[in-house]
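ERR on first pass: missing label on line 2. Operator R.T. fixed the label and resubmitted. Corrected input:
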Amino acid sequence: MTFMGFVLAVCAVASGIGVIGFRNPLYSAFSLVANLMTMAGLYALLDAHFLAVSQVVVYAGAIMVLVLFVLMLLNLKVEGGAKLGLMRAGLALTAGVLILVTGLKPIMEHFSSVPAITLRENATKTVGDVASIGEQLFGRYVVQFELSSLVLLIGIVGAVMLAKRKHVQLAPRSVFGEAE
Amino acid sequence: MSSLLGYLGLSLLLFVIGAIGVCIRRNAIVVFMCIEMMLNAVNLSFVTFSKLLGNLDGQIAVFFVMVIAAAEAAVGLAIIISVFRNVASVETSDAAELKW
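pass 2 clean. output:
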């Protein structure tokens, strides 16, 4: 891993810890934006240029704006009240360690022997620029590409349906009940 | 240590951080953001393997994951707003009742 990759990796882990560490959800959201940006940098280092750009535009741009919009709309207070229980934290940590161990074992077994040169040798074949990605997308994967547009359409319609639904019979606990 | 191990290890580490976040955070929006982070961790290993194996299929997979994540963000946030209308909170523990 180059020096740049190392710096980006450290930033990615730090901002990732920031996402789960900050009590204010707004800080978590901005931390996630930083995380997604560093991931875009790592994609660029791995010669996935198109993905790096679409990571910035789609993830750090569109999706995070949506998340921040909802955070602002709901006007949440800083997470407080009940502290994180010892048992809950212990369970979460155990789950994390288990995933780490089960993931680390196959990585160490199968990929520690792959020489570093392999990555550089294959580099010319897999430059993910717009031309080569587009060729694949509209060639081999054209059906999946069209289906993904259908998925997005259904997602949009579903979001509108969910957000529009009226809840009239829930007046006692509904926050918008009194206003109507 | 080869750079392949570095990328895969980083991917695994980010996935674990996301998983721990899903377990310990109560705010549904933060849980949602942790899930996005886990998706990104897997995307990173897709791109790494795409480079290692010398074909573009991994990057195409990442592209489709991004499409699904965008759709998921729209629907997931709409569900969170819908839950907020009913229970006036986005804490996951407040939305524990199936019926009231």
